[in-house]
């Protein structure tokens, strides 16, 4: 349980590398706009925070005004508390149009007192089916935590409070699909009770509505592209003038590798790579991401 505390210390020491200095000073309106359920979105503290809510009528969500081709994205999130079974809080990157790319954090709610599951997934060239699930070493409804996505020409990394929980390498040279399209950042709160909790058996209990998620940290470290259809294969967003593309972000550091291994061994509860029923032969990328 507390092992991760030991790993936290070196991350804090080198925390400057994550460039979160302006975090919290940028207002929501500067980089984001409401995309769904406008009357269920409340701005807090002069736009420094956002409350998304969901009731029987509607969920809600917001998205970035710009499209991005690489970056080190982050939001601070506090998910709905009490009985949140069936409720999904999602934070993701997504491209528009056909054969879409997507990189997902999905917090799957649970009955009161039972732990949340954090699911991640990746779509490349329109193909998803790459789910992994972890349990968290804290209660994500009790406080804000940092959730980050690094996306550069070398790797995608999901971080929880600077601890890498998932790595997806760019192995397009051997035929693994890798997200290449311009993507927007979105966060949504929605009813997923057909699948999210106990495989869809635990339904949303509407007596607890409205469900509320809180989000902060609206500065964006990303390379923006003018058009949502721009492919980033013009390499504009691959330049190492962007700090997240520099060599230190091409792979995990030895310390991060240890923390990542710890998550894999202690917190991973589902991995499509080892689901023999779905994939008798593990997908190609599975041998590269450990
Ligand atoms: C993935 O890596 C290949 C080289 O192996 C490179 O040509 C390509 O641009 C990279 N993809 C992205 C989206 O950066
Ligand atoms: C919903 O929660 C209330 C309050 O705890 C409880 O009385 C009720 O039985 C629950 N309903 C369902 C369908 O689980």
Automatic annotation (TrEMBL):
<keyword id="KW-1015">Disulfide bond</keyword>
<dbReference type="InterPro" id="IPR016455">
    <property type="entry name" value="XTH"/>
</dbReference>
<keyword id="KW-0732">Signal</keyword>
<dbReference type="GO" id="GO:0042546">
    <property type="term" value="P:cell wall biogenesis"/>
</dbReference>
<dbReference type="GO" id="GO:0004553">
    <property type="term" value="F:hydrolase activity, hydrolyzing O-glycosyl compounds"/>
</dbReference>
<keyword id="KW-0961">Cell wall biogenesis/degradation</keyword>
<keyword id="KW-0808">Transferase</keyword>
<dbReference type="InterPro" id="IPR010713">
    <property type="entry name" value="XET_C"/>
</dbReference>
<dbReference type="GO" id="GO:0048046">
    <property type="term" value="C:apoplast"/>
</dbReference>
<dbReference type="Pfam" id="PF00722">
    <property type="entry name" value="Glyco_hydro_16"/>
</dbReference>
<feature type="domain" description="GH16">
    <location>
        <begin position="4"/>
        <end position="215"/>
    </location>
</feature>
<dbReference type="GO" id="GO:0016762">
    <property type="term" value="F:xyloglucan:xyloglucosyl transferase activity"/>
</dbReference>
<protein>
    <recommendedName>
        <fullName>Xyloglucan endotransglucosylase/hydrolase</fullName>
        <ecNumber>2.4.1.207</ecNumber>
    </recommendedName>
</protein>
<keyword id="KW-0326">Glycosidase</keyword>
<keyword id="KW-0378">Hydrolase</keyword>
<dbReference type="GO" id="GO:0071555">
    <property type="term" value="P:cell wall organization"/>
</dbReference>
<feature type="active site" description="Nucleophile">
    <location>
        <position position="102"/>
    </location>
</feature>
<keyword id="KW-0964">Secreted</keyword>
<comment type="similarity">
    <text>Belongs to the glycosyl hydrolase 16 family.</text>
</comment>
<dbReference type="InterPro" id="IPR013320">
    <property type="entry name" value="ConA-like_dom_sf"/>
</dbReference>
<dbReference type="GO" id="GO:0010411">
    <property type="term" value="P:xyloglucan metabolic process"/>
</dbReference>
<keyword id="KW-0134">Cell wall</keyword>
<comment type="function">
    <text>Catalyzes xyloglucan endohydrolysis (XEH) and/or endotransglycosylation (XET). Cleaves and religates xyloglucan polymers, an essential constituent of the primary cell wall, and thereby participates in cell wall construction of growing tissues.</text>
</comment>
<keyword id="KW-0052">Apoplast</keyword>
<dbReference type="Pfam" id="PF06955">
    <property type="entry name" value="XET_C"/>
</dbReference>
<feature type="signal peptide">
    <location>
        <begin position="1"/>
        <end position="19"/>
    </location>
</feature>
<feature type="active site" description="Nucleophile">
    <location>
        <position position="106"/>
    </location>
</feature>
<dbReference type="InterPro" id="IPR044791">
    <property type="entry name" value="Beta-glucanase/XTH"/>
</dbReference>
<dbReference type="InterPro" id="IPR000757">
    <property type="entry name" value="Beta-glucanase-like"/>
</dbReference>
